[in-house]
UniProtKB/TrEMBL annotation:
Subcellular location, record wording: Membrane
Domain named Bacterial sugar transferase: residues: 279-461
Lineage start: Bacteria, Pseudomonadati, Pseudomonadota, Gammaproteobacteria, Vibrionales
NCBIfam families: EPS_sugtrans, EpsB_2
Annotated keywords: Membrane, Transferase, Transmembrane, Transmembrane helix
Membrane topology according to the record: Multi-pass membrane protein
Protein name (Swiss-Prot/TrEMBL): TIGR03013 family PEP-CTERM/XrtA system glycosyltransferase
């Protein structure tokens, strides 16, 4: 795995996870103390095994839901009120999961109101903890000092991909060193330096943790001896492409060369793994279909009530899938019947062709539920690049370099690009999304897929559909 940050997990949010777990344990002990104090015939002690089984049955679902609502995203842009709402949603979902697990695995040792009181106390302790952490700036304890060697076109990738303050949390950019051969005037906001001392001395005196190589013309300009010496001193040496990929979860497509794809460590095809992955997707799809069936019925009724009995509930649309092969994707109808009277068009974020019901079901991704059928029959996975229409794919493949690499994996209901980039409705957006799709293809594994599914729940819960 190329991402040293494990797709967002680093010192700062690892500390957050640990402190949340400690506060959850404190909340559990407080609740247990209240139960022993006020509930008659409650004889469990702090050393009984059942007590700690109950704790983990509560703590594990709670932390999964905290992750699912985005509270361990270091670059989350949210007010404290927004964070409080997310904690409340996480605690409610955690309570529901705990109740279900308790019914399955825990005997009736605890009083009926135990989990309810525990949830309230956990909400209060977690909320106050977050307030203290944010107020004292403890969520930004760890910062790596970054020096960029180069100030031209390649160095400008950082300015393009990491413009916002939130993109640079955990990083302290010392500056960009100008190197002979760099394109002039590429950096507009960054601090460009001209060294008056040896590179090694500058790195030592400024406490540099990582040196990013972003030289436009490397021939005869790359100081190998200095770099080897710095590496022996423990300074991390990183290529600009790898740095941006690690920190932003995207690949700088415009600066790639074919060898980047050639030397990727692709996993060999394994029929057993492929079958197991399809079986996992199929079982989850069937489970979600059963859980969401009432919503699908209500959606069908709402569509008919708004648009008439003859209006189709579902529509199918040709899309390009694995290895460039076409398949038909299914959705709830969210647009008017004459939506494409003027030919094939990009879907817009606030598309005027959308019906009132369609606007609602698209906001919460209910319109995507029929694609569970596509997952079950193997056309799609839960996670992967979103499949595009053939009419668009042909043009995008000829105008955007490496666009067809998206077809090396099955398309998905959700994906890394959908989490990281707003609604796309142009060729420019397609290029930006490709950067995230290539990152996913390079780093894909079960853990990343699970993380994407959990973060997708955040988008659905808070109506931030992309």
């Amino acid at each position: 795995m190329s991402s040293a940050k494990f797709h967002g997990l680093n010192t700062n949010n690892t500390l957050m996870i640990v402190t949340d777990f400690m506060m959850t344990f404190i909340s559990f002990i407080l609740t247990l103390f209240c139960a022993k104090l006020f509930v008659n015939h409650f004889y469990l002690s702090y050393t009984d095994l059942e007590v700690y089984i109950q704790f983990f049955v509560f703590a594990i679902p709670l932390h999964l839901t905290l992750l699912g609502v985005g509270l361990y995203n270091e670059k989350l842009r949210e007010s404290f009120n927004g964070i409080t709402i997310r904690i409340l949603v996480a605690v409610i979902l955690g309570y529901i999961l705990t109740y279900l697990l308790s019914q399955l695995f825990i005997d009736d040792f605890f009083p009926p109101s135990f989990n309810e009181l525990l949830s309230v106390i956990a909400f209060l302790t977690l909320t106050n903890l977050r307030f203290i952490i944010i107020k004292l700036g403890l969520n930004q304890l760890s910062k790596r000092r970054i020096l960029v060697l180069g100030s031209g076109q390649r160095a400008s990738i950082i300015e393009q991909c990491m413009r916002r303050k939130s993109d640079r949390i955990g990083l302290d950019f010392i500056g960009f060193i100008s190197v002979e051969g760099d394109a002039n005037g590429q950096l507009k906001q960054e601090k460009v330096l001209t060294l008056s001392e040896p590179l090694e001395s500058f790195v030592k005196s400024n406490g540099v943790d990582e040196l990013v190589i972003a030289i436009d013309e490397r021939r005869n300009n790359l100081p190998f001896e200095d770099l080897l010496g710095l590496k022996q001193l423990g300074v991390r040496i990183t290529d600009i492409i790898d740095f941006v990929e690690r920190e932003t979860g995207q690949v700088a497509v415009s600066h790639l060369n074919p060898s980047w794809f050639l030397f990727q460590n692709h996993r060999s095809k394994n029929q057993l793994r492929t079958s197991a992955y399809w079986l996992f997707n199929c079982c989850v799809a069937i489970g979600i279909a059963l859980l969401t069936f009432p919503f699908m019925i209500l959606t069908a009724i709402a569509i008919k009530l708004e648009s008439g009995l003859r209006f189709p509930i579902l529509y199918s649309q040709e899309r390009v899938g694995l290895n460039g092969e076409s398949f038909f994707l299914y959705k709830f109808t969210s647009m008017r019947a004459d939506a494409e009277k003027n030919g094939v068009q990009w879907a817009q974020k606030n598309d005027p062709r959308t019906t009132k019901v369609g606007k609602f079901i698209r906001k919460f991704r209910i319109d995507e539920l029929p694609q569970l059928y596509n997952v079950i029959i193997g056309d799609m996975s839960f996670v992967g690049p979103r499949p595009e229409r053939p009419q668009f794919t042909e043009g995008l493949s000829s105008s955007i370099p490496y666009y067809n690499q998206r077809h090396n994996v099955k398309p998905g209901l959700t994906g890394w690009a959908q989490l990281k980039y707003p609604y796309g409705s142009s060729e420019k957006d397609a290029l930006e999304k490709l950067k995230f799709d290539l990152y996913y293809i390079r780093n894909r594994n079960f853990t990343l897929d699970l993380l994407i599914l959990l973060k997708t729940s955040e988008i659905i819960l808070f109506g931030k559909g992309q």
